[in-house]
Amino acid sequence: MGEMLAPAVDGPNSPPTPHDWRITRLGEIAELASGGTPSKSRPEFWKGTIPWASPKDLKRPRLYDAEDHISEAGLEDGSRIVEPGTLFVVVRGMILAKDLPVAIVKVPMAFNQDMKAVIPGPEVDGEFLLYAFQQHKPSLLPEISTSAHGTRRISTSAIESFRFPLPPLPEQRAIAHVLRTVQRAKEATEKVIAATRQLKASMMRHLFTYGPVPVDHAERVRLRETEIGSIPEHWAVRPLESLAGLVSGGTPSKERVDYWQGPIPWASPKDMKRPRLADTEDHVSLEGAENGSRIVPPGSVFVVIRGMILAKDLPIAQATVPMAFNQDMKAILPGGGLDSDFLLYSMVQHKAQLLPEIGTSAHGTKRISTSAIASFAIPVPPLPEQREIARMLSVVDRNIAAEEHRGKAHSGVFESAIHHLMTGKLRVKYVARKNGEADQPSRRRNR
Fold first, then answer.
1. Domains and CATH numbers, the chain
2. What is the residue-wise DSSP string for 161-212?
3. Which positions of the chain have pLDDT values less than 70?
């Protein structure tokens, strides 16, 4: 027979919970405590070794340190220290307009008055409680309000009234162990991605300075100084307009529904989140592309020329399939002496030259002129060197893409696991703790 389920008491739309679980209020199984800020006029209070957390530190779910530190005297003057296993919940600040940050403390830590410390009682495991917040947080978000001073806040009573299903303590620990294992796999993948991105940045600096030669041979390369920095002596520097064509796109009429029911990818700045585009959010028909846009061939390089994204970055990406595009971008069509992949990497590497050219239009939006793109100077190695540089960097890009795919898979597994485990739809058998060790899940699971 399947697991006996008891009716939920958390609302008519809540899933039923296992018969040995109960719906609890946070205030019944944990203590809430307030923090504070030592006097800023006393420098000696801020020259200690005690981590002092504030909402800016709650960017990750586990805190091993904080940006600020205080002394013992500072702690006594205006704050409070809590032990590992305590949770911090932001209760005041504009970050609440976007999210309700929650994190678990992994070392003794002080904290400020914009957060509440949630100190688990003997019935609840801190790691399980962290996942309970993550899974059931949507029920708390409507409790966030705006204070008289305009900032966002959530009341202590709302936190104390937070309701969620609570399994027996050994099962809590087993659930937390499973979820943490999945998270560690995702975190390991994120570290690989970050390290590979650093490797790529280092490779690009080397390749666009010395060319495709080993690092230990770089000193043999004769360099010359140019307006774009040091490059091999036999390379040229030329404006983009002498190497490629620049063309404009457009938007087919939104009144013609048939224009927007086709198979042709139609790119706009919102699609420019990756260096290579194989598809886009919107698609147009051939008739739509011919009546308001333009199709460019694979290998064309897009650059955003208008939009508020230019306040932060200058997106550049390559189309890997035939693609139409809108009027807020330019398409660069490389000529016979310019490798498309090399053009992509070269523009990204030397993008800093273009950033000062970004201005503000009369309507307040950001823009960069076609003439600035046309006169953009890039290095021009012999074509075989261009292709080798592009090949080396493409290998790294494929590795990054593979790790990102793996990371998405881990995220999918975690989202499914937290939903099923935290609602009791999937039960975890566990081995009872021995000699003070944590409860561990067994290999068998039942539904």
1. 22-166 (3.90.220.20), 168-234+382-447 (1.10.287.1120), 236-380 (3.90.220.20)
2. T-EEEE--HHHHHHHHHHHHHHHHHHHHHHHHHHHHHHHHHHHHHHHHHH-S
3. 1-16, 431-447
